[in-house]
Amino acid sequence: MKKTITIILLAVLIPALVVVGAVVFRERFYAWLALLVAVISCVPLFYAFERRDSTAKELMVLAVLIALSVIGRIVFVEIPGFKPVTAVTIIVALSFGGEAGFVVGSLSAAVSNFYFGHGPWTPFQMFAWGIIGLLAGLLKKPLKKSRILLCVFGALAGILFSVTMDVWTVLWAEGTFVPKEYLAAIGAALPLTVEYAVSNVVFLLLLAGPVGKKLERIKKKEGLFTEERPTARAEKNPADIPEKEELSK
């Protein structure tokens, strides 16, 4: 049930909001739309946090990963399609799950655009990187087993990001979705799409091994991003306390 709600929120409600916002409100409300996407993208993760006792540590880990993703995007500012954001998002999803991947991907776009510039494209970037993280989390078992499958997924993720941004290009230019214009936009963006795909494969080959191992170590050591478990208070059985006190007398 929780997975179904997560998929509906992240893969259905958010793109619907993004598209409606682009068509109806256009430039006037993109900042509020980006904020709304950010809030909704965090809802499933925060709901999971409420059921566990490791909230602060998990949030801190995600904040650090978002910061690293943002710094990586800024470092490669001179090469438009060569960014580590997608790779970092995928690696996070493989270790911590699709919800965490969505949060890192979407908030990496929101935060880094304070440097690159916010605009009506921001919600589309947030959704594109977020949905890549969610898909990586859903497919994490086969992706973790095969480096080849991981590279193929990284390349496809680059294509997915590009064609998602092409939707924004058409909506912004035409005010509505025109298939013919969309195909033209995809063709015009083809060199950049190839660059996205290649860069994802390169960064995954470089980072998936060392970064993935560190994240798995943190997850195991700190007990982060695991299935629901009782809190420390609930783990203590009150019935045992009098018995222990009686034995100590």
Description:
The chain is mainly α and 249 residues long. It has one domain: Arp2/3 complex 21 kDa subunit ARPC3 (Orthogonal Bundle), CATH 1.10.1760.20. It contains twelve helices and no strands. Helix 4 runs parallel beside helix 10 (190-222).
| Helix percent band | over 70%
- Arithmetic mean of pLDDT: 81
- Total number of distinct structural domains: 1
What are the low-pLDDT stretches, counting only 5+ consecutive residues below 50?
228-249
Estimated radius of gyration = 21 Å
> What structural class results from the helix and strand content?
mainly alpha
Number of strands: 0
**Biggest sheet descriptor:** none
- The CATH class, by name, is Mainly Alpha
Order of helices and strands: HHHHHHHHHHHH
Distance between the termini: 49 Å
Number of helices: 12
> Within the CATH hierarchy, at the fold level, what is the topology?
Arp2/3 complex 21 kDa subunit ARPC3
Beta fraction: under 5%
Overall 3D geometry? Answer: globular
- At CATH's second level, what is the architecture? Orthogonal Bundle
Q: How does the SSE layout of this entry go?
A:
Elements: H1 2-25, H2 30-50, H3 55-75, H4 85-96, H5 98-116, H6 122-138, H7 140-145, H8 147-174, H9 179-188, H10 190-222, H11 232-235, H12 240-248
State the gist of this model.
With 249 residues, the protein is mainly α. The chain has helices at residues 2-25, 30-50, 55-75, 85-96, 98-116, 122-138, 140-145, 147-174, 179-188, 190-222, 232-235, 240-248.
